[in-house]
């Protein structure tokens, strides 16, 4: 039996609906939204003494159920199908004497003005507004005008809809321009029995007298999980908020049916501010055959550790899920702008929502474990927040690492999952007269400022490799008598500080384009200038070009080592470090001009675009005859060591010997040295391109 229309236009045809209801018979037809789902919303806006008009009633049981539960009895139902009106009169006439069914076109109603307190529409607007043709929009305008006419001031038009973007936009624009208050409710789903994947919404349009002039629009959305509506500033933002909830419903439906081949992520936002509160990644391990108890788990990433490889990369999360032994693992990252009490509070907040991401067949009452590292949510304290005209918004924050160590980090919020600079913090010194307790189990107070930066510790693996590259310098002595170093890109200053402190014969020049970063490095990362350390606030491109021009005129070479550790502000390019202009051939030739013949140029390359990376490497090989590369394990970073003469080539044995000799020279008695930092190890994986 064919019940669907041949074209969308037939949804507005009385002939189609007559045929539809005759063929369907007495079985109630509910487009979407059963009464138990709609009841909580309807109870807010329909009072027992209200006079209610239901437009396009069909043979839905909604009016009957409202009548039977005592929500309201004075209900008038209208429809353009003679067949369904006769059917409903027979079904309800004697049992519900105060409710009536009338054959009437909602585009031309016979009721007097201001006759009803409520107009209820369940799917009728969706059926009428099937396209955006001029004739269709004219009918919708006529429908809205008639609804407005028969409603009293203060009355409510309740429209149950799937909220397709063009339908929602049309309704909201029309009534908000008329001065009505518009609120959109998301209807709570009934779980496994719901007919549609997409959620159902109820538009609540409350009629007010139109005020002459441009009165402010009042637009609100009320998600299913909360009663308090959220104000939105425009029709576009309201449509976008509904679309977000539709996408989430589609995602949950997809995840409930099949394992996801690629990791899926989504943000859960704070109800009050609308800002992201949790970032979730769904990781499936189809190759695992977990027990019934190990099918689903939630992993809370400690605050401040979301940038670590294990938690911040797709490969790391996959390894985490495999190690945990769960078929589906949802990792949860906590946002720095939000406050979290403890693990119990997070669990209570997330328990209901994460169950919507559960795999197929998981029993509804099964206890889902919440996992973490060490059982706590970590520590994060934002020390400083500011905005730079060049780098945008940034934060300096202290976080607790793995174990008892604390770290200070610089994060650019335009790329919040990347640590721009990092330094280890020394524990605060005891106050005068304070005795050191042997077993102090009290947790450190994160709000208490920590004493100092540990300048002996290089947090970033790529910085360790860049320093180790100094072993490639020419000359018989691994620790040169004098060393002139140019570092382009200051950040927190860890790299130039380490070179300055451990190479006592080094003179370091740093070029930084952003004056805000010099202030950050000085105030928060223990950086300072002196006779052997000078910062030039300038564009690295201009600075190198100026030196190259001066050097060419009087034949001087400037530097033993040049290091580029400069990020790109343009996130649309597949290379985040350095900016493309820094690896163009004419500029690299200028770099070579200011580099001593036995010197070394060290470049931190972060490039996800394979073709672009190959192009960069080819350009480097054109300029520098000797090119070494060192990939940083678990990261995108690749450190390139470039030398202007092929005669400086060293075999692995010689390179290891020079690394051990240099490290021995740097480890002076009484000077702290990070025991995990072995120069020879950093150079083991170096290969010649």
From TrEMBL:
Gene3D superfamilies: Vaccinia Virus protein VP39. The keyword tRNA-binding does not apply. Residues 425-448 are annotated as: Disordered. Residues 53-158 form the Methyltransferase type domain. One of its GO terms (cellular component) is cytoplasm. NCBIfam families: MFS_SpdSyn. Belongs to the methyltransferase superfamily. This is eEF1A lysine and N-terminal methyltransferase.
């Amino acid at each position: 039996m064919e019940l669907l229309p041949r074209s969308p236009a037939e949804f507005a045809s009385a002939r189609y609906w007559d045929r539809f209801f005759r063929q369907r018979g007495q079985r109630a037809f509910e487009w979407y939204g059963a009464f138990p789902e709609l009841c909580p919303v309807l109870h807010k806006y329909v009072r027992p003494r209200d006079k209610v008009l239901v437009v396009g009633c069909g043979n839905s049981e909604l009016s009957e159920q409202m009548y039977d539960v005592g929500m309201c009895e004075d209900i008038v139902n209208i429809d353009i199908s003679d067949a369904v009106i006769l059917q409903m009169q027979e079904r309800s006439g004697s049992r519900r004497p105060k409710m009536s069914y009338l054959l009437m076109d909602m585009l031309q109603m016979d009721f007097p003005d201001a006759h009803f307190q409520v107009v209820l529409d369940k799917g009728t607007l969706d059926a009428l507004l099937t396209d955006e043709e001029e004739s269709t929009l004219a009918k919708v305008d006529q429908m809205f005008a008639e609804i407005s006419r028969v409603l009293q001031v203060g009355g409510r038009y309740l429209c149950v809809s799937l909220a397709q973007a063009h339908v929602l936009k049309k309704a909201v624009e029309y009534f908000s321009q008329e001065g009505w208050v518009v609120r959109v409710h998301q209807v709570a789903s009934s779980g496994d029995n719901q007919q549609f994947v997409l959620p159902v919404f109820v538009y609540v349009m409350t009629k007010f007298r139109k005020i002459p002039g441009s009165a402010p629009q009042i637009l609100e959305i009320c998600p299913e999980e909360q009663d308090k509506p959220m104000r939105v500033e425009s029709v576009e933002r309201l449509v976008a908020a509904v679309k977000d909830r539709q996408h989430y419903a589609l995602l949950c439906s997809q995840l409930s049916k099949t394992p996801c081949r690629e990791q899926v992520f989504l943000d859960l936002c704070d109800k009050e501010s609308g800002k992201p509160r949790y970032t979730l990644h769904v990781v499936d391990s189809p190759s695992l055959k977990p027990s019934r108890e190990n099918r689903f788990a939630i992993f809370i990433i400690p605050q401040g550790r979301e940038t670590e490889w294990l938690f911040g990369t797709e490969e790391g999360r996959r390894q985490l899920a495999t190690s945990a032994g769960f078929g589906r693992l949802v990792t949860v990252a906590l946002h720095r702008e939000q406050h979290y009490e403890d693990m119990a509070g997070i669990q209570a907040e997330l328990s209901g929502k994460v169950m919507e991401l559960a795999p197929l067949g998981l029993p509804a009452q099964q206890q889902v474990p919440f996992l973490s590292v060490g059982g706590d949510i970590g520590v994060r304290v934002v020390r400083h927040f500011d905005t730079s005209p060049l780098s945008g918004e940034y934060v300096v924050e202290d976080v607790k690492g793995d174990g008892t160590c604390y770290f200070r980090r610089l994060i650019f919020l335009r790329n919040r999952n990347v640590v721009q600079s990092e330094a280890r913090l020394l524990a605060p010194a005891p106050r005068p007269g304070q005795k050191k307790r042997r077993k102090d189990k009290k947790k450190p107070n994160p709000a208490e400022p920590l004493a100092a930066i540990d300048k002996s510790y290089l947090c970033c693996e790529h910085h360790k490799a860049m320093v180790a590259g100094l072993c490639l310098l020419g000359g018989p002595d691994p620790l040169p008598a004098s060393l002139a170093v140019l570092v382009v890109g200051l950040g927190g200053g860890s790299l130039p500080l380490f070179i300055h402190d451990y190479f006592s014969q080094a003179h370091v020049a740093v070029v930084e384009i952003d004056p805000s970063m010099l202030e950050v490095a000085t105030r928060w990362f223990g950086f300072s200038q002196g006779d052997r350390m000078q910062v030039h606030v300038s564009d690295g491109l201009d600075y190198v070009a100026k030196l190259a021009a001066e050097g060419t005129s009087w034949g001087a070479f400037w530097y033993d080592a040049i290091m580029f550790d400069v990020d790109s502000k343009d996130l649309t390019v597949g290379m985040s470090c350095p900016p493309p202009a820094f690896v163009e051939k004419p500029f690299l030739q200028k770099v070579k001009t200011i580099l001593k013949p036995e010197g070394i140029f060290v470049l931190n390359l972060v490039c996800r675009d394979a073709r672009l990376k190959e192009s960069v490497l080819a350009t480097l090989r054109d300029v520098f005859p000797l090119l070494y590369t060192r990939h940083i394990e678990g990261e995108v970073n690749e450190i390139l060591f470039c030398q202007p003469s092929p005669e400086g080539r060293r075999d692995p044995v010689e390179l290891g010997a020079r690394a051990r000799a240099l490290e021995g020279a740097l480890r002076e008695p009484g000077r702290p040295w990070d025991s995990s930092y072995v120069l020879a190890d950093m150079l083991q994986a170096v290969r010649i391109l």
